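Example 9 (inverse folding). The structure is encoded as follows.
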């Protein structure tokens, strides 16, 4: 692997992409520590520290997902969540709205239009979230007003700055996807998780022997789980495919045997990201009603506790099937095999082949979805009994996202290396 990474820096185009990705992530992390002008910095830090309801409630989860930016009311306080939420909404609408479905099938032109719709929706969600956070902070006694300036001016400045920060994050993510290496949205989430790791480890250690032992056990368990996650991410179901012999001009074509690879976890980490975004959405809505007790209670119940665990499992399994059906179409695969003269031994071409592939896809998606759900839920259950900060910040979901993002990024680097006749990273 080290040799492969060394070779990556020998190729100018690939080196530039890697350095550009790192530079964009550095810019993002700098922005996560730049506070909004006029905000009482220390008041916000105190609000999110200690045993306050904000530190322990639904807002703590939003702060975790933003990489700690929300606790500083930085320009990037909203994080990547508005963009993720808009992506979820548009992807679900593609299966309901015929016009969006047709756009998705038009290739690059249709995807460009859908991306534009996603940007507009992200802007609307960012404005709503910014206004909600402003109301929430004011409800806890944080004042943004100056002595000689009307408070409405500060309110507009805060909302405008937070909204601009969310749009800038979206732009950074798209730039990384287009000009860098890997998926920009996933890499930003990866950076947020890594940013909170040192503080979580320090909090878990606690300065005593018991804290050191507990932290060591947690880290050992995390290291032991990583190979299982890698095995799931790299696992494939290989369906044998034969090609009939045919004469093209004066040449004999076909006659060889190959296989159709189907990933065990076709959806990757998307189901967990989507499920987390939907479960955090009530917490985002609750900021509009800081003084209503039952709204805060519902948001807190959906953000943690047994109801959150059940909904997490259901949503992860649902999104695993939903996203898999979007990225892998058995009907199109069967049609392509038929046009190329390929067939699965013992299965008729056409509809029977599509049904066979769909059945195989469903069989391998269910266990992978259950595994994803367990990885996401078990650390949350353990955290509810122990209260260890390391489990909350670096639990199963975080590890799964990080491993998935690293493997996806390394796979893209490997494909670039093979284009230049270098050995890949995975051997």
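The amino acid assigned to each position is listed next.
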């Amino acid at each position: 692997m080290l040799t492969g990474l060394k070779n990556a820096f020998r190729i100018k185009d690939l080196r530039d992409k890697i350095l550009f990705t790192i530079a964009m992530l550095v810019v993002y992390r700098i922005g996560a520590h730049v506070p909004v002008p006029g905000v009482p910095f220390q008041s916000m830090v105190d609000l999110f520290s200690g045993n306050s309801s904000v530190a322990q409630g639904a807002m703590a989860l939003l702060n975790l997902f933003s990489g700690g930016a929300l606790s500083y009311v930085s320009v990037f306080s909203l994080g990547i969540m508005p963009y993720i939420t808009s992506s979820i909404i548009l992807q679900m609408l593609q299966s309901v709205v015929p016009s969006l479905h047709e756009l998705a099938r038009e290739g690059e032109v249709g995807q460009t239009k859908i991306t534009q719709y996603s940007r507009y929706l992200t802007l609307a969600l960012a404005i709503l979230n910014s206004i909600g956070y402003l109301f929430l902070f004011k409800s806890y006694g944080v004042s943004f007003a100056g002595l000689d300036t009307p408070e409405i001016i500060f309110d507009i400045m805060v909302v405008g700055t937070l909204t601009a920060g969310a749009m800038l994050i979206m732009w950074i993510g798209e730039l990384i996807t287009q000009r860098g290496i890997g998926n920009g949205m996933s890499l930003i989430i990866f950076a947020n998780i890594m940013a909170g790791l040192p503080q979580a480890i320090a909090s878990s250690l606690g300065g005593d022997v018991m804290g050191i032992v507990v932290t060591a056990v947690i880290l050992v368990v995390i290291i032991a789980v990583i190979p299982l996650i890698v095995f799931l991410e790299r696992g494939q179901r290989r369906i044998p495919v034969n090609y009939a012999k045919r004469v093209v001009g004066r040449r004999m074509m076909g006659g060889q045997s190959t296989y159709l690879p189907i990933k065990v976890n076709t959806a990757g980490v998307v189901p967990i990201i989507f499920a987390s975004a939907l479960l955090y959405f009530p917490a985002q809505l609750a900021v509009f009603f800081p003084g209503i007790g039952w709204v805060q209670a519902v948001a807190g119940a959906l953000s943690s506790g047994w109801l959150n665990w059940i909904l997490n499992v259901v949503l992860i399994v649902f999104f695993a099937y939903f996203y898999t059906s979007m990225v892998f179409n058995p009907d199109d695969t069967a049609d392509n095999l038929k046009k190329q003269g390929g067939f699965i031994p013992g299965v008729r071409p056409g509809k029977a082949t599509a049904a066979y592939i769909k059945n195989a896809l469903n069989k391998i998606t269910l266990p992978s979805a259950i595994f994803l759900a367990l990885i996401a839920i078990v650390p949350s259950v353990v955290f509810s009994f122990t209260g260890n900060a390391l489990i909350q910040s670096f639990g199963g979901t975080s590890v799964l996202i990080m491993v998935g993002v690293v493997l996806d990024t390394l796979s893209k680097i490997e494909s670039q290396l093979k284009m230049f006749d270098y050995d890949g990273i995975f051997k």
